Amino acid sequence: MSVTPHDESFMAAAIRLSRRHLGRTATNPSVGCLIVSDGVVVGQAVTAVGGRPHAEPQALAEAGARARGATAYVTLEPCSHHGKTPPCAEALIAYGAARVVISVTDPDPRVSGRGIAMLRDAGIEVDAGVLEAEGRRSLAGYLTRQTKNRPYVTLKLAVSADGMIGRQGEGQVAITGPEARAEVQTLRAETDAILVGIGTAISDDPLLTVRTPGLEAQSPVRIVLDPSLALSLTSKLVATARDVPVIVVASEEISPLGTEEGLPPSVLPDISPTRGEIGQRRDLSFEDSGSPSAAEEIGQGADPQPISPPVGEMPGRAEGGVSSTDAADLDSRRAALEAAGVEIVYCNPYHPEVLLPALATRGISSLLVEGGAKTARLFLEAGLVDRIQLYQAPVVIGENGIESPLDATDIPSGFTHMGTQIFGVDRLDVYERGL
């Protein structure tokens, strides 16, 4: 059967449904599934919070007997392997679905093509690649972690009319209006983790949580690049570390273990899991995931050589801060941070090509880089930004402004302009690399 406009309409609905649990399904992708009989949706579901149960068995259960002879619309190829849940392809067969329409084929080698083959072997008609571009965008985090062994990285910048993202020495400066700021809260809610440099953490004292009423529980894991443990013990991040996870990425040079006790350089220890799997631990191994090694994926346009620290940020020195060289002081700060619930990991903060694969081993599939200018430039120069959300506001910062690392006139090559949205008086332009 050829793909019809009705197929595309139902798949578009399944993709919209899949976005409901973005950032909340742990290591599993957020998948949408519709069961349609005689043009009527008789069952629908999205992957459950935490990653299980999957979308297909939930939608099938809702449809019940009406699933027999129906068409299933699924945003990702149904799984074919036995894991912690039975294969979704088997469930579709057992319920008697007559046709399965798929947006994206799963790159996981345990599944890729096997789910489709299992369905066809059972006599079920399968059409794949329906609204594939839209489906891939909704699954960007999962697909990037599977194929590139790192999270999908979104860089968010709010730029004033005179090209600034803030003002020196004044902490947070309101650039965009309330409508744009509300949209950023939605972006945070859909993301596994959010990252800032220590300069931003010190000057702005941000909370980095989701503040939209009803979505507070969807706050991402918060990550600070902090080579010398300069994060203030009285900061909002430290004060709330037991409520929403905080990870401080410190220089290996100040690790209490060093490399003599078996901790390889630039490797994250068993840090706290993402919010989708709080209370569980994850194996650092990627042996069963089918993902490439870190050496195989450094980033599009990235330089495989070690990345120099941004100007003004030398190893062992905080961004714009003071060097912490006293071992006793470091031990005291380390103990105080850990006592407050902060996770400290030792992985060169200036090597995102090493840090990102390490985060991927923890199930972090999407990362939002929010500040500041030096940190944004670090990820851009490493070629490790996949999406740019550029907010442009009519306000003027004036003297002592902090210049933005980019604006709409100098977007790096390889990015495609995906569209423009208006929020109040502010403009949002989105640019993406191909997946």
Please, could you describe this protein's structure?
With 435 residues, this protein is α/β, with parallel strands linked by helices. Helices cover 25% and strands 21% of the residues. It is built from twelve helices and 16 strands. The strands form three sheets. The chain has a nine-stranded mixed beta sheet with strand order 11-10-9-8-12-6-13-16-15, sandwiched between helices.
What gross morphology would you assign? globular
Strand fraction band?
Answer: 15-25%
- The overall average pLDDT, rounded, is 85
Roughly what percent helix? Answer: 10-25%
Helices, by number, come to 12
Biggest sheet descriptor: 9 strands, mixed
User: What is the structural class?
Assistant: alpha/beta
Rounded to the nearest angstrom, the radius of gyration is 23 Å
Question: What low-confidence regions span 5 or more consecutive residues with pLDDT below 50?
Answer: 259-325
In what order do the strands lie side by side in the largest sheet?
11-10-9-8-12-6-13-16-15
Question: Terminal Cα separation, in Å?
Answer: 28 Å
Instruction: Tell how many strands the DSSP assignment holds.
Output: 16
Summarize the helix and strand pattern as letters.
Answer: HEEHEHEHEHHEEHEHEHEHEHEHEEEE
Topology:
Blueprint: H1 5-18, E1 32-37, E2 40-46, H2 55-63, E3 71-76, H3 88-94, E4 99-104, H4 114-121, E5 125-128, H5 132-138, H6 140-148, E6 152-159, E7 164-167, H7 178-189, E8 193-197, H8 198-204, E9 221-225, H9 236-239, E10 246-250, H10 327-339, E11 343-346, H11 352-360, E12 366-371, H12 373-381, E13 387-392, E14 401-403, E15 416-423, E16 426-432
Parallel strand pairs: 3-4, 4-5, 6-12, 6-13, 8-9, 8-12, 9-10, 10-11
Antiparallel strand pairs: 1-2, 1-3, 7-14, 13-16, 15-16
Helix pairs in contact: 3-4
